[in-house]
Amino acid sequence: MKRKDTIWNPVFTSVFIANVCAQMGQQMMNTLVPKFAHSLGAAASTVGFVSSVFAITALAIRPVSGPAADSFSKKKLLILSNICTVVAFLAYSMSTEVSMVVAARLLHGIGVGMSSPLCLAMASNSLPDSKLGSGVGVFSLGQAVSQAIGPTIGLSLSRAIGYSQTFLVGTAVMAAAIVCAFMIREMPEDRPKFRISLDRIIAKGAIRPSVVMFFLGASYSCLSSFLAIYGGARGVDQIGLFFTAYACTMLVTRPICGKLIDKLGFEKVLVPGIVFFACSFALVSMAKSLPGFILAGVVGACGYGVCQPTVQSLCMRCTPKNQRGAAGNTNYIGMDCGMLFGPTVSGFVVDSLMKSGVQAVDAYSKMYLIMTIPMMIGLAYFLLALKRIKKDIADLDAAQAASKIAE
Asked: Residue range 204-209: average pLDDT?
């Protein structure tokens, strides 16, 4: 029976809800964990390392998670990955020193390294080709709202009930994600035999978009890692409203973004998105009060909030359906490398500036300006690679058309 040309089919809806719950729990931690490490006495460079260290295990699990996603039950793998994250959150709640936080963060990376590409692959495979851009835009909208609201909830709860209890609340949210994952009805699909090889770990067509994701992710990771500390240095107590403004704007930009990708093409969406993203960092650097940070959040939602689903759609568009587990894996390898690189380098920049005599608040301000450089490199690379990306898509479309004729 032919599937209806719609986004909200039962499989997509179930995956969407499960992913929102998982992302909400994870994003509550992503801003809270660096602040928690800072409260334990960690320097800026150490805070950056704590924030990014989960990318080490996320990357380490990719050689297994990519092939496994295409060969085994994605539903069962998703449940297993969410269980790993629950255990990590419990470990956060019991941590009393930075080394314990690092250990929990490494376990957290295993859970994230498995779950994110699984959800993206399941959601993409449930969508008709004509709705791929719109569908991934809606899917990433749920993810982005979680990214925006989660930090606000985490920071507010930590002030009200303390770090340990907030980590336990995050554990409960992740438990809800596990319950939702059990409700997913898997679609029948051809599953190749499991083997670990480069072509099963990395989808060739998704490499170029993922390089762009690396540079954008490196810059974005500085927001969740240092914004709460920077806001505190500026004397802005309600810095979590930055993420709220980001989320509210995202509710408008993400659905529009998906439709624009399908109608105008990815390049006409991604290039302005990167420019807006760079402008948001300039605004963060100059912000001295809450309204300034809120404005930066709005502009940021029109920047990275547009770039992320565009690159994800591009990874899926450049890859055959039976390799989309590897395509999602490739996308997140780029993001993980960026998240490993970004906070570590930016933390080093802050420490270096402070050692040279720059005040802490000015050091963070300058760091945000410096971290626009990776965005500009990513933009230049995309423009250079654009012709080849379009050729990859055309070749894939031609191969699919020939396959249908042969059938």
From this structure: 90
Q: Are 314 and 262 in contact (CB under 8 A)?
A: no
Residue 15 to residues 81, 82, 109, 192: CA-CA distances in angstroms? 14, 13, 20, 22
Among 134, 172, 96, 91, which Cα is nearest to 316's? 134
Alpha helices in 3-53 (DSSP H): 10-39, 44-52
Q: Cα separations (Å) of 6 from 3, 67, 131, 212, 383?
A: 8, 28, 7, 29, 32
CA atoms within 13 A on the CB side of 75: 15
Instruction: Bin 192: left if φ > 0, else alpha if -120 < ψ < 50, else beta.
Output: beta
Residue 165 Cα to chain centre, angstroms: 25
CA-CA distance, 331 to 204, in Å (whole number)? Answer: 11
Amino acid at 224: S
* Helix 10-39 and helix 163-182, axial crossing angle in degrees, nearest 10: 160
| pLDDT-based confidence at residue 1 (cuts at 50, 70, 90) | very low
List the one residue out of 105, 365, 98, 59 whose CA is nearest residue 226: 365
Copy the structure tokens of residue 186. Answer: 């898997």
Single-letter residue type at 402: A
Alpha-carbon dihedral 338, 127, 397, 195, rounded to 10 degrees: 60
- Is 166 within 8 Å of 157 (Cβ atoms)? yes
397: enclosing H helix or E strand: helix 373-406
Q: Residue length, the chain? A: 407
Q: Which pLDDT tens digit goes with each residue over 304-353?
A: 888 988 898 888 888 887 777 778 778 888 988 898 888 888 988 998 99
Using an 8 Å Cβ cutoff, are 225 and 346 in contact?
A: yes
Q: Cα 396–397–398 angle (5° rounding)?
A: 90
- The pair of structure tokens assigned to 307 is 């770039």
Query: Tokens standing for 345?
Result: 């380098």
Rounded CA separation 360/177 (Å): 39
